[in-house]
Amino acid sequence: MLKHLHIENYALISHLDIDFGEGFSVMTGETGAGKTIILGALALVMGARADSKAITDGEDRCVIEATFDDCIVRRELYSNGKSRSFVDDGLVTLQELKVLANRLIDIHSQHANLLIENADFQLDIVDALAGNASQQAAYSEQYSRYLEAAEALHHLQALAKKSQQDADYIQYRYQLLDEAQLQAGELEELETEQYRLSHAEEIQAALQTTVAALSGEQGSALDAIRACRLDEAAPELQERLDSARIELQDIAEEAERALNRLEMDPERLAWVEERIGQLEELKRKFGAETIEALIATRDELAKQVQRLDSFDFDIAQAQKTLDAAREELQKRAAALTKSREAVVGTISERLINGLRQLGVAHAKVEIPIRATEDFAPRGCDEVQILFAANLNQSLRAVSEVASGGEISRLMLCVKALIASTKGLPTIIFDEIDTGVSGEIATQMAAIMREMAKSRQIIAITHLPQIAAQGATHYKVYKADTDRRTETHIRRLTNDERIQEIASMLSGKNTSEAALNTAKELLCCH
């Protein structure tokens, strides 16, 4: 329940404090007095969009604070466009504020009557009476799984399509590298062999010269060393000569072996050069620096080829997952539909009874449930309230056949229905009586009084029949000061209520008859 409202520096309000009571309260005031300003301030603490232009001229900030039974909500708006929100003096986000406010208070403005034409709102009405929150949660959870499964399948199909378009190219590139039978280090080995084969004659001549110089039959280095005997004259030199002889002997033998192995093989040279050319061409084609890089590219292409082969299997599995998700979603959608079908008859009947109480004697209401073509976030149902106000009038959408007054009455009946199922502690009606008068207004007030037995109801009204039925009566008015015009609100005494209701009946110059009528209206309630 809203217990107290404090407003500072908001529009025409420099300072306002007002206490609210339980049950049914009414708020009146001339057009332009500032009732809308007070509602605007209250909307701010409910998380409405802030506008620094709403701050009173010349002030740096405004503060709106609403005290409820179990918490205090405050919104501070600054001239630089920033705002802050608090719950029990703790800073909260705007979204957190909105979530809390939606559980504390509901403001039904004149514009809210247009909601009756909204398909989602009509579905809200049915769901509120169906009490199907658990079924909705179960459906919503499965709907998310279904969307994820559908997206996964779509992603795989898109990948498969793109991969298939690239398949021939991928396969071609892989075959080029696979058939090349690449080996790490191969190019270096081939280049070494190419040098040896292409310079075989020069190498042979050099080896022959080496062998002849070291161990030839005439004047070889080894023969000369063997002839030198310095054992006694220079033993250290003799030792070095012996060592050199052994080393030169080994070199001569190795050179001879190399000479024997050396081949003149033009065919091998041609093959080596061709292979080197092939590898260099592959490096160029694939933008690789080394054979190892080519091998890495080959292995990656092999994986892509393998993935091409696995797409059919993966898509089949994803389709199975989607089919299972769809089947489960259909079950949960059916449970939602069943819960709605169970209450639409009762809703129609209660709305008809309420409308007849409000003077629509021949009201007819039906709420057919139609299946949607596909799953939607809230199930597979489309709900539309069909309405007729007169005899022999066909049922049609509310927006097509209902007058402004009939929509106001229908919305009050709807609010009464929803209030009976939701635990909203406070509902504010902003001129829901638009388009009605006389006895109908009295009946509207009776419905709001009935609602007020279990919650706080505040009605902003311009009708004396409704104003008279409030347990508490507040008046909004303007007063001029030296600086500016300001909006105020105060609770009226019994005598002040008589005067106010009389003014609502006959204008500022209240007649004796109007005063007596006002007294009668108040005495009746």
What would you say this structure looks like, in words?
The chain has 525 residues and is an alpha+beta fold. Among the domains are: 147-316, no CATH class; 493-525, no CATH class. The protein contains 16 helices and 17 strands. It has helices at 35-45, 94-104, 119-130, 133-179, 186-198, 200-215, 221-227, 235-261, 266-286, 291-357, 398-401, 404-419, 438-451, 464-467, 494-506, 512-523; strands spanning 2-10, 13-19, 24-28, 61-68, 72-78, 83-87, 90-92, 105-108, 364-366, 369-376, 379-383, 386-388, 396-397, 426-430, 456-460, 472-480, 485-491. The strands form four sheets. A six-stranded antiparallel sheet has the order 2-1-4-5-6-7, covered by helices on one side. A six-stranded mixed sheet has the order 8-14-15-3-16-17. The chain has a three-stranded antiparallel sheet with strand order 9-12-13. Helix 7 (221-227) runs antiparallel to helix 8 (235-261), helix 10 packs across helix 12 and helix 12 (404-419) packs parallel to helix 13 (438-451). The longest helix is centred in the middle third of the chain and has 67 residues, at 291-357. The chain is elongated. The mean pLDDT is 87.
Q: Could you tell me the radius of gyration in angstroms?
A: 48 Å
pLDDT < 50 stretches: none
How many H/I helical runs?
Answer: 16
What's the oligomerization state? single chain
Average per-residue pLDDT, rounded, comes to: 87
What is the general shape? elongated
Strand content: 15-25%
Structural class: alpha+beta
First-last Cα distance: 23 Å
Residues in helix, %: 55-70%
Largest sheet: 6 strands, antiparallel
Strand order of the largest sheet: 2-1-4-5-6-7
- For the secondary structure, the number of strands is 17
